Structure formats: C-alpha cells, structure tokens
Amino acid sequence: MELRQLEYFVAVAEERNFTRAAERVHISQSGVSAQIRRLEHELGAELFDRSGRTATLTVAGKAALEHARAALAAAGAVGQAVGEVTGLIRGRLTVGMVVGCTVTPLFVALAGFHRAHPGVELALLEDNSDRLVEKVRAGAVDLALIGTATAPPEGLDALTVVSERLVVAVPPGHPLADRRRVTLRDLVAHPIVCMPPGTGLRAVLDRACAAQDLEPGIALEAGSADAVADLAARGLGVGVLSESMATHHRDRLTARPLDDVDTPALLALVWRSPHSPALRELLVHCGRAFA
C-alpha cells in the first residue's frame, strides 16, 4: 500500500468522479484508476461502486476513507515537523479563487511566496464561492478567495480583503443614468445582467430583493465583471457590479449606488485551522499584499 494510492482514493471519494480526481492530483484518469484497482486488490475489496455516473463509496470504501485521510495527515505531519526544525518549508498548497474575479494582490502574494519557498508546489483553481468553501472544509483546498454577503463561513478562519457596495451600471442614455438616487425597486423594473448564484455579488442582490419582497428579472448571467459590463454596455440589461468593478468601465458605463442596499459585497480569504507551516507563510504574504 502506497501513500499515493491513498491520496488518489481520497481524491476520488471527495470528487465522486475519476476524471475530476485525476485533474486534482495532476495525473491521467487511467493512472488514477490503475492505482485504485491495485489498492482494491491489496485490500481484497472494491472501494467504489462504478455502475452509476458518479463514483460512490462501497461499505468497504466508507470504512477505509477516514483511515486513509488520517494516514495522509500523519505523513504530512512528519514532513512539517522536519521542515519546522530545519527551517525548510516543502509540500503543496492548493489555492482557490472565485470565478471571474481577478485580484492582483493575491497574485502578488503567490509570487512572493514562490520566490521565498520554491520547494512548495502551488496549484490555483477557479470555482464558485459556495463550492470553494466546501472544498476548504473538506481539505481539498488550503486557502480560497471567495465572494460572500455574510460573515465568514462557519468553522473557517477568514480575512476580509474587499468590502464594497453594489452599484448599477448602465450606458449613456439609459433611464437610470440621469438619476441621482437608484433604489432596488428602480432596478427590478429593468432586465438585469449579473453574476450567477454562488458569487458574493449575487448573494447580496438576492438577499436584498427577498428582504423587500421583490422579484429581480435576471436577463443574463456572466461569470466575470468584464462580461457583465460588456453586456450592460450593449444595452442587454442593467449591470450589477461592485464599486471597484464598475470603475474599470467608467468610459462607457455610468455607475449609481443602490441607495437602499447597505449590505456590502465581501471578498475574503478563508482557510481551515490548524494549518501547515506552508499555509502560515502564505498567509503572511497575503497579509502584506492586501495591506
């Protein structure tokens, strides 16, 4: 039995899919499948039911999962302990970033960390905020930049890096462009272009509408601020963005704060404690970059 086999087993169990697990551990799907088969042969039992579209744990697989996680954690702790004693930080960190959100300080932090600790392999993945939170909780992602409308997710440590109000973004000549005050009721009278569910901006919008018993007419959804702005500029709907997002498009869009939406859209770094020396060092770089 090899540690890599346990790593692949845990990846398939958490992703419930051999293809996604292979992407996560950076080898081919056939390689993951072969190693899982070898592990099953050694254990004398099938760990996954492969009859459906998803890879479902068998009774034997469920019994093995927590022990596999514990074995991987123990192996990681050995390396961390030696690294702390010798002053070397090694290993691998997976960093998550909410789709469509380019935050330069995060890239600055990653670059600075890489220069200081080249022995640590870095992986970066994009997903929506809800899924990133679950991956951090499950240990599949070490640190994630998420969008949220509320306080940090329960059970996770967090650092808020951006807190901004929502604005509507419209092209010149739009009825809302000449208004000094724009309310949520004014907004929902028009088709809306916004980010999809699972993003912080959308969560703020949906909760604000629900609080006033309003039904927003979502005409189009786009995963990036640039796409929302471009669609709004072409007259396909009123864009909903944060203040800084709209600033980048002020040459073609007029931004007006939503006067009666006080809840800010937040960008936050989230992670699970206790954490490794590598993550501790990355957090130091993030603190500097976002300061």
Low-confidence stretches: none
| Proportion of strand residues | 15-25%
When the domains are counted, the total is 3
Quote the average pLDDT: 89
Class per helix and strand makeup:
alpha/beta
Give the CATH H-level superfamily of the largest domain. Periplasmic binding protein-like II
CATH architectural designation of the largest domain:
3-Layer(aba) Sandwich
Report Rg.
23 Å
Oligomer: single chain
Order of helical and strand elements: HHHEEHEHEHEEEHEHEHEHEEH
Number of strands: 12
**Number of separate helices:** 11
Specify the CATH class of the largest domain: Alpha Beta
Helix content: 40-55%
Lateral arrangement of strands in the main beta sheet? 4-3-5-12-6
What is the general shape? elongated
CA-to-CA gap between the ends?
Answer: 46 Å
Describe this structure in words.
The chain is α/β, with parallel strands linked by helices and 291 residues long. It has three domains: 87 residues, Orthogonal Bundle (Arc Repressor Mutant, subunit A), CATH 1.10.10; 87 residues, 3-Layer(aba) Sandwich (D-Maltodextrin-Binding Protein, domain 2), CATH 3.40.190.10; 98 residues, Periplasmic binding protein-like II (D-Maltodextrin-Binding Protein, domain 2), CATH 3.40.190. Helix content is 45%, strand content 21%. The chain is built from eleven helices and twelve strands. The strands form three sheets. Strands 4-3-5-12-6 form a five-stranded mixed β-sheet, sandwiched between helices. The chain has a five-stranded mixed β-sheet with strand order 9-8-10-7-11. Helix 1 packs across helix 2, helix 2 packs across helix 3 and helix 5 crosses helix 11. The model has no long low-confidence stretch (mean pLDDT 89).
